[in-house]
Amino acid sequence: MKMCIACGMPMKTQADFAMEDETKDYCVHCTRPDGTMQSYEEKLVSLTGFIVKTQGMDEKVAQMAAKEMLSKLPAWKV
Amino acid sequence: MSDSQRQKQKIQTRKKLIDVALNQFAKDGLTTTRTLDIASSAKVSHGTVFAHFATREILLDAVIEEFGIRITNRLHELVSTNCGMKDVLSAHLRGISEYESFYTQLILERRLLHESARNSLIMIQSAISFHIIQVAEREIEACKLCRMPVDLLFNTWVGLIHYYLGNGDLFAPGDFVLARYSQQLIEHYINLITLRTEDK
To answer: Which of B80, B116, B129 sits opposite A54 (nearest CB)?
Structure first.
């Protein structure tokens, strides 16, 4: 199963892929309206928001965890 | 041995070390397990462990990551099929119960772990919460569940589970907590969040 290079989400169905295009390496949640992949800054904001929404954590703690997570993903590895 | 065979063997050894380490961490604790014991259980030399994982912390990170992938993939598969709240909670507990000892150590020792391990656990819990929230939001809209902040909906559920796991010696001494209490905990929680006719 392919995993999104920008957020790590498993992409199981066609609907999980950017623009429902299974040749893409990033998922529907990491796509801008024009089909391009979101930037690092955009992902950091959305992933931090995702942690806050799902667990109600302090925003700074959530941002640290988001940074760590992004650093391990192919799209953002230095 | 050809390069591809060597590569294949390298991948197999790495996988074996992660599986063995997961069991060893579950048995001896995340902060106190010795790499020497992992090597001995995996029947490899101590040096082999470090050939694959430069430090003990990197090995623990790999184990936590593997645990997270296994537990969230199962939930991801299930939630795509429009399951109900009871189904997603059952799948969550089934996933944990396969690794109950490891998960219990993980939550009990969380604050003692290095930063990347603590952050990995945050991401695992958010992925689990996301799947549970997806189902919950559907059922809240359908007036089956009480309307409440979704982070609290998840934290209440996980708080209940962690209380039982963290006090396993009181609830199921020498036994697995979830094998004994899963059904009861799911029913109790569903009862708490269900919107009753008189509340509508």
So the answer is: B129
Chain A residues whose CB is inside 8 A of the B80 CB are 12-13
Q: What is the ipTM of this complex?
A: 0.89
Interface membership of A44 toward B (CB under 8 Å): no
The pTM for the full model equals 0.91
Domains plus CATH for chain B? 60-199 (1.10.357.10)
Task: Please write the tens of the pLDDT for every residue from B102-149.
Answer: 999 999 999 999 999 999 999 999 999 999 999 999 999 999 999 999
> Minimal Cα distance from B127: which residue of A?
A54
Kindly report the three-state secondary structure assignment for every residue of chain B: CCHHHHHHHHHHHHHHHHHHHHHHHHHHCCCCCCHHHHHHHHCCCHHHHHHHCCCHHHHHHHHHHHHHHHHHHHHHHHHCCCCCHHHHHHHHHHHHHHCHHHHHHHHHHHHHCCHHHHHHHHHHHHHHHHHHHHHHHHHHHCCCECCCCHHHHHHHHHHHHHHHHHCHHHHCCCCCHHHHHHHHHHHHHHHHHECCHHHC
Mind listing the pLDDT tens digit for each residue in A37-70?
999 999 999 999 999 999 999 999 999 999 999 9
- C-alpha distance from A67 to closest chain B C-alpha (Å): 9
